[in-house]
Amino acid sequence: MTKQISLNALWDSALSKEQAFGSDRLSHLPEAARRYLEHAIAPGTAIASAVRLQMHGEIKLKSWIPFKAEQVICWERGLIWSATAWMNGLPIVGSDRLVDGVGAMQWKLLGIFPVMIASGCDITRSAVGRLQAESTWLPSVFCGDDVSWTRMDSSHLHSSFVVQDQRAELDFTIEQTGRLKTVKLPRWGNPEGAEFHDVDFGAIVESEGTFCGYTIPNRLRVGWYFGTDRFESEGEFFRATIDDAIYR
Question: What is the spatial distance between Cα 34 and Cα 143, in angstroms, rounded to a whole number?
């Protein structure tokens, strides 16, 4: 079995682009897209290719249980989310990952007894959807020439780009200040426990914070069936607060 890359190794592999953000980079974009990016990235901030996040929150298995986690998103390679959750006082330790086009999940009770081990094409495709959604923690990726924007109205934007050989179609809701309120996309998954298919997936941004010149969602609610009543009743499964973020 090939040894899995560590979170630290993924972070160390990130390359600095040695470019600084400025409004002149956005002159060709719709006004709403410029508003979002000018809010999300301070002038002169280095254009990052990776972010390392510390977070805590709750995840819904059969019930809501607390977790603490560290995550690296390296845009060229993927992501690793390494966490410990507690069920009935016992730790469940593991990771979700997508690295170099391969997705996997591995979780063990007490770090010993397998709780969930999953891989394969469906897991990889779903993990790519997660990377697409979590691009909002790395707003610099939206400055690339390969990202196309469509303005729906003054508060709704559509962004399209390719990552890990899959096209992302993200819908943003933003305030007049440029603050992000929601993000929505079709994501490959099986929340019903049956066959995988595209499901509306998204996040409600409850607050934001500024780290190293980037203003990103720092408290949010995430889940399936986004934009419908089912989100509240059965789709929401992840609530996170970002405690710290560093960029490279």
Answer: 10
Structure tokens at 206: 């409850």
- Distance of alpha carbon 3 from alpha carbon 205, whole angstroms: 36
Nearest CA among 19, 72, 80, 18 for reference residue 50: 72
Residue 248 placed within a domain: no
Sign of the torsion angle spanned by Cα atoms 44, 8, 10, 14: positive
- d(CA 68, CA 91) in angstroms, rounded, equals 11
pLDDT of residue 196: 98
User: Would you state the structure tokens that stand for residue 104, as one six-digit string?
Assistant: 């996997």
14 inside domain: no
Average pLDDT value for residue range 210-233: 98
Radius of gyration of the chain (CA): 18
Helix (H), strand (E) at residue 216: strand 214-224
Name the burial class of residue 234, with classes exposed (0-12), middle (13-18) and buried (19+) by CB atoms within 10 angstroms of its CB. middle
Instruction: Write the CATH number for 209.
Output: 2.50.20
Q: Nearest 5°: CA angle at 112, between 77 and 96? A: 20
Is residue 218 within 8 Å of 207, Cβ to Cβ? yes
* Residue 13 included in any domain: no
Number of domains, the chain: 1
- Looking at the domain assignment, is residue 67 inside a domain? yes
pLDDT tens profile 72-89? 999 999 999 999 999 999
pLDDT tens across 112-147, in order? 999 999 999 999 999 999 999 999 999 999 999 999
Give how far the C-alpha of residue 137 lies from the chain's centroid of Cα atoms, to the nearest Å: 6
**Quick check: pTM over 0.90?**
yes
Its domain, for residue 156, covers: 27-242
Residue 1 — very low, low, confident or very high, per pLDDT cuts 50/70/90? very low
